[in-house]
Amino acid sequence: MKVQSQIVRMKCDLTNQEFFIPAKSIESFQYRYASTILSSQGDTYGDSPLTLFDFNSPCCKPNDKCTAISRTNNLSWVEIYMGQSMRIDSTKLKERIRKRIASHKIEDEKKGRECEDNDYVDVDWVMERFYSSNLTCPHCNQIYGLTTSSMNTFSIDRINDSFAHTKSNCVVSCRICNISKQKL
């Protein structure tokens, strides 16, 4: 499988919920050591660890759980990941972007940085930048995260700090670069 972008938009058939998965996670499934429940049909993983992710997801059906566990001949090697979901819910992501933009708008108004509403950054503009940049910071070329739990989450960075957060004056970068620039 060849993935062109750093993120892949998916939709759960059961809940109709849209979410994003880092492309690196999907690309790893082409390797022998990482497989899906369905691609492992008939395989047995003897005496090797088996980690099951998103076990509590509504997309993971009971039959899939049984199939996944039955891939091993040693149940003591089965690890069930119960931590934070590895998926990124697009509704929550868009809400986080909306809040960030609202915060920037308040700050821009306080500082007297004027802008027409149609030129101000918006959720669609930010989402498009995620896709076109492949989640890569234009300053340091490192991949930035989309969640608040990411060590280096995304940031809406003004090119010229004298002007408002307009589409022509902003890039989506990593938070570390944006904060570092402010300290200079």
Number of domains: 2
| CATH fold-level topology of the largest domain | DNA Binding (I), subunit A
Overall number of strands:
7
Spatial ordering of strands, largest sheet? 1-2-5
If helices are DSSP runs of H or I spanning 4 or more residues, what is the number of helices? 5
Q: Give the rounded overall mean pLDDT.
A: 75
Low-confidence stretches: 27-34
Which class of secondary structure composition applies to the elements? alpha+beta
Oligomeric state of the chains present here:
single chain
Approximately how much beta-strand content do the residues carry?
A: 15-25%
Structure in words:
By secondary structure, this protein is α+β, with helices and mostly antiparallel strands. The chain has 2 domains: 7-80, no CATH class; 89-183, DNA Binding (I), subunit A (Orthogonal Bundle), CATH 1.10.30. It is 29% helix and 15% strand. A 3-stranded antiparallel sheet has the order 1-2-5.
What keyword list fits this structure?
single chain; about 180 residues; alpha+beta; DNA Binding (I), subunit A; 3-stranded antiparallel beta sheet; two-stranded parallel sheet; elongated
